Amino acid sequence: MTQYSIFQENLRKLKHPAYIGIDNEGIPVKLNNDGSMNIQIVIPGIDIENQVSCACSCYASVKTVDAWESAIVAGAVHEASRVFTGIANNASAEMLIRCVTGFNMLAHININADCEIIYSIIENPIVSNTGTRITTYNLNRSSANNANALIYYTPTTTGGMTIVNGMDGNGKDVSAGTAIGARILKAGNDYIIRATNHSGNPNRDMSIRLEFMEKAA
Fold first, then answer.
1. β-strands 92-98, 150-153: how paired?
2. By three-state DSSP, how is residue 33 classified?
3. What is the domain partition of the chain in residue ranges?
4. Could you count the other beta carbons within 10 Å of the beta carbon of residue 159?
5. How far apart (Å, rounded) are the C-alpha atoms in residues 125 and 146?
6. Which residues of 85-113 are buried (b: 16+ CB within 10 A; e: fewer)?
7. Cα dihedral angle (31, 33, 37, 40), rounded to 10 degrees?
């Protein structure tokens, strides 16, 4: 008899149902009456709805959880957003991200507009006025964890290094929706997210949404 067969046989000799250990989320692994087990495994990058079949017949099913969703459940993901209305041609909607010392930020940035835009991210501009503070919210509404980063809208800044440049939309009435994508913003640094009305027409509306998680630097 192989070691695997002996393992299965010994499992089936246990009094059912029985708890025989914990999975990688700290949840007890329960042995069912038929000798099978239900466990949950968190695998980064795999969508929560996906089911992965286990080659070992002693496992009834394996459920995988997306890493970002797992972080939300843990109360580690926060959000800041702002709608900007009536943006003139060649004027901009801006959000200032101030990463505090000791915490890097994993940021997902989304910009939407009802016109063509030019967008950019600027690192370490000179900030003469931070603007108005934006309240950040934990995506797990049952969590008491607060964000460390400070987020503002309509700051007054000059200079800095442009680390992202892009363009979206086509003219006045074509919606622009840009997911700039995930990036790590460095602890102790300031960043400007800027979306400029490039439609040739005034009174355009935009929104900037920041979803982020902080990690000790």
1. antiparallel
2. coil
3. 3-65, 78-216
4. 9
5. 26
6. eebeeeebbbbbbbbeeebbbbbbbbbbb
7. -80
> Position of tokens 């009094």?
15
Distance of CA 183 to the CA centre of its chain: 10
Contact 212, 105 (CB under 8 A): yes
78-216: CATH topology is Jelly Rolls (2.60.120)
Secondary structure class of 205 (helix, strand, coil)? strand
Spatial distance between the Cα atoms of 65 and 151, rounded to a whole number of angstroms: 29
Q: Could you tell me if 160 and 178 are in contact, meaning their C-beta atoms sit under 8 angstroms apart?
A: no
| Residues whose CB falls within 8 Å of the CB of residue 141, separated by 6 or more in sequence, listed in order | none
147-186 pLDDT per residue, tens: 999 999 999 999 999 999 999 877 665 666 777 888 999 9
Q: What is the pTM assigned to this prediction?
A: 0.70
Give tens-digit pLDDT for 80-113.
999 999 999 999 999 999 999 999 999 999 999 9
